[in-house]
Structures are given as structure tokens and as C-alpha cells.
Amino acid sequence: MAGGDERENLTYPLFGQAVRELAQTIVDDGFEPDIILSIARGGLFVAGGLGYALDVKNLHVMNVEFYVGVGATLDMPVMLPPVPDVVALNEKKVLVADDVADTGKTLKLVHDFCAGHVADVRCAVIYEKPQSLVKCEYVWKRTDRWINFPWSAQPPVVSRDGQVLDA
């Protein structure tokens, strides 16, 4: 594990601070997104917080599967249904939100999906790791450590297999 045994421990209160600071960075840069495109699942929290902080009500969700366990991934990320209609994004300024840019493969997939259809696409994450293929425009903190997010630090209350639904 990169960074040894030390981990980033994001608590809910610190997450609130991180999202506000990330939003301020976006405002200070002069970027005014029309749409926030969340990468589910971890990006849902970030997108919701940014939506309120930036007063953007138009939030979309893209479901992408890549991590299948701790440190275990598919070869490449895969978009899961329902896939957003690119027409809804046409000529809009899109802010892609996720919790972490780790390998950057998921962000690259979503960024490339938007490219050519939108007026501008930029990425915002709480954490960015050095090996990320995508260098995000807006990053709260850069780290090479494993991250314990408050929403995934504990195991699920119930374990369910096969809950991904086809469209």
C-alpha cells in the first residue's frame, strides 16, 4: 500500500469542510458549471455538497463500476445503465465530481464521454493521487495514501449480491 500503513481518514465534519473549500476554489477560478455530473457512488456525496455550495440544482449521475473490492479493480471501468443522454449535456459547462482520482481511469472515461458534446468539462475531487491519469482542475488534497471515507469505512449493514439493475 502506498504511503505505508498511514491512511487518510476523512470524517463527515472534515468532508463538509473539504467540499466548502473545494467549492471556493471553483468560484475563485471563475468556473460556473451548468451541470454537476456525479460519478456514483462516492461522487454522489461530493456532487450533492458542491451542488448546494455552488447553487447548482442540475445534477446528473453516471454509474461506473471499476473497484470490485479493496484494491481490486476490473481491467477497465464500465458504464452501467442508465447512461446519461449526451444531448442533455450539449453545450453545457459540466463539472464532473468524484471522491478520489486514484488511477484516473474512471474520470477519464467520464471526461471522454463528455468531450466533444459540452462547452467545457472540468473535474473536481476531494483527493487526487499522484498516479492518476487525469489531473483534475479542482482538488482539495493530494495524497498517495489509502483513504478511509466516512461512507465506506465500515462494512455494509447488509450484504447484497447482484443489485446492479439493467435498464
TrEMBL record:
Write the signal peptide boundaries. Answer: none
CDD domains with a match to the protein in the record: PRTases_typeI
Alphabetized GO MF terms: glycosyltransferase activity
Keywords from the UniProt entry: Glycosyltransferase, Transferase
Q: Which residues form the Phosphoribosyltransferase domain?
A: 13-153
Identify the InterPro entries for this entry: PRTase-like, PRTase_dom
Q: Where are the transmembrane segments?
A: none
Domain of life (superkingdom): Bacteria
Protein name per UniProt? Phosphoribosyltransferase
Query: In the record, what lineage is assigned to the organism producing the protein?
Result: Bacteria, Bacillati, Actinomycetota, Actinomycetes, Kitasatosporales
